[in-house]
Write a structure and sequence with these properties.
The protein is of the alpha+beta class and 328 residues long. Among the domains are: 1-58, Arc Repressor Mutant, subunit A (Orthogonal Bundle); 103-176, OB fold (Dihydrolipoamide Acetyltransferase, E2P); 179-256, SH3 type barrels. It has 6 helices and 16 strands.
């Protein structure tokens, strides 16, 4: 499967390839007659790998290097900061008539839309009523306002055909797409967070909502993040699992934590730079045992008249002899 993904330049392979892989795995000796591997499971595996490769390739300059950061209680530091109100970015759909309002003929409203505030693109995900898992939205096909309940949209999931289209509750089951975590972003995942977690089981491998119960921080190495997270899946409250960071997608509302962390690291680096010249100056000033600073005084030049000069002594017996001063 890794080789197939590389052959397609990390693009999603065609549906016929994914279905062939699902049939091949279902016919393997250990699964034949027991477990049927579904197309969704194969699709989710490829999507998970594509997310990981995309996150690895889109590293911004100056990205945090957690392994080289000073030991600070960063999660608690971020938790103590007042969190900004999370304003959900929703798609405004026109039309207030009851019933279904389809999109213009032959036109699909894409699942990737431009945000008017910062000129960026918003990607969406939706929760399927069939299995309770979350999938990327490829397009919004239509919307309808029901007499009772919330409005709904008809969505086409990325990588799926028309027979998989669903009507989804806009307020409850459509949201901005969760973000795969880079190795340096593990510090932004805290206990109590809602995350999207990749659950691999015997019968399925899907993305479900989960709550982080605990985070075990470990030193990073050449393989990347080694931290582990204890999560409880929301669709099955009794099931808990310890997962690595690569199986977790964080919510976009946690972006502010990374920004705060960047600012803290930059401030720390700037303060260290200002302290270095002061330390150099202090190193040149000796300190007495009492703690008082002793100024350095340059030595005064010696009086040339006090320097040692040869002295001629006249002995009574014979000729004079030259003897250095200070000799006895």
């Amino acid at each position: 499967m890794e080789a197939i993904l590389l052959q397609h330049n990390t693009a999603m392979p065609g549906r016929h390839i994914l279905e062939a892989l699902a049939d091949k795995f279902s016919e393997s000796p250990e699964r034949k007659g027991k477990i049927v591997v579904q197309f969704k499971q194969i699709w989710n595996w490829f999507q998970n790998r594509r997310y990981a490769l995309r996150a690895r390739g889109n590293k911004a300059p100056g990205k945090l290097n957690v392994s080289s950061m000073p030991r600070m209680d960063l999660p608690n530091q971020m938790r103590n900061v007042v969190q900004p109100l999370a304003v959900p970015k929703t798609t405004h759909m026109t039309g207030n008539l009851p019933g279904m309002t389809p999109a213009p003929s032959g036109i699909l409203v894409p699942g990737v839309m431009r945000s008017g505030s910062d000129n960026s693109y918003l990607e969406f995900e939706a929760k399927s009523a069939r299995d309770g898992a979350w999938y990327d939205v490829q397009a919004f096909l239509a919307h309808r306002n029901l007499e009772i309940g919330d409005p709904e949209v008809q969505v086409r999931f990325a990588g799926f055909e028309v027979e998989e289209d669903e009507w989804i509750n806009v307020k409850k089951h459509v949201r901005q797409r969760s973000l795969p975590c880079e190795a340096s972003e593990c510090v932004a995942v805290l206990a109590g967070d809602l995350v999207l977690c990749f659950q691999e089981g015997k019968d399925q491998a899907l993305y479900f909502d989960a709550i982080v119960l605990d985070a075990q921080r470990r030193r990073h190495d050449v393989r990347g993040c080694r931290c582990r997270f204890l999560v409880r899946y929301s669709h099955d409250q009794s099931e808990q699992e310890i997962v690595p960071l690569r199986k977790i997608c964080r919510r976009p509302e946690t972006d502010y934590r990374l920004q705060q962390l960047h600012n803290a690291v930059n401030d720390l680096g700037n303060s260290n730079q200002h302290q270095i010249p002061a330390l150099d100056a202090a190193a040149k000033t000796p300190v007495s045992q009492s703690g008082a600073t002793v100024p350095i005084v340059a030595p005064e030049p010696k009086d040339p008249s006090l320097s040692a000069t040869p002295v001629t002594l006249v002995q009574p017996s014979s000729s004079a002899a030259t003897v250095p001063a200070g000799s006895a």
